[in-house]
Amino acid sequence: MVAAEVRKLAQRSAVAAKEIGGLIRSNIENAREGSGLVEETAETLAEMAGDIQDRAIKQEYGAWSQGLGFFNSNSSGNSHSP
After folding, report:
1. What share of the chain is helix, strand, coil (3-state, %, to 5)?
2. N or C: which terminus of the chain has fewer CB atoms within 10 Å of its end residue's CB?
3. CA–CA separation, 22 vs 16, rounded Å?
């Protein structure tokens, strides 16, 4: 009787070990997929940051150019000497 119970316990342990092994493999695969998604997200965010920076520079340059043009047109219009 004790030997039969030990055999059953060994069989259940073997089944549990296989299930645990499957869970471990599944978790490893999920971690790899998650890591890949993080890398893709980081690349996308870096591209977005670069685009935002480029647009900000263009807007700043455009505002500066308009201000310079306004200054030049006002200074040339006010060049009358008394």
Report:
1. 95, 0, 5
2. C
3. 10
Give the tens place of pLDDT for each residue, 38-68. Answer: 999 999 999 999 999 999 998 888 887 777 7
Strand extents, DSSP E, 1-82: none
Q: Which pLDDT band holds residue 81 (cuts at 50, 70, 90)? A: very low
Cα 14 versus chain centre, distance: 41
From residue 15, give the alpha-carbon distance in Å to each of 21, 27, 33, 70, 72. Answer: 10, 18, 27, 81, 85
**Could you report how far apart the first and last alpha carbons of the chain are, in Å?**
123
Angle at 71 between CA 66 and CA 76, to 5 degrees: 130
76 confidence band (pLDDT: 50, 70, 90): low
**Among all chains, which residue has been given the structure tokens 């089944």?**
15
What is the 8-class DSSP label of residue 82? -
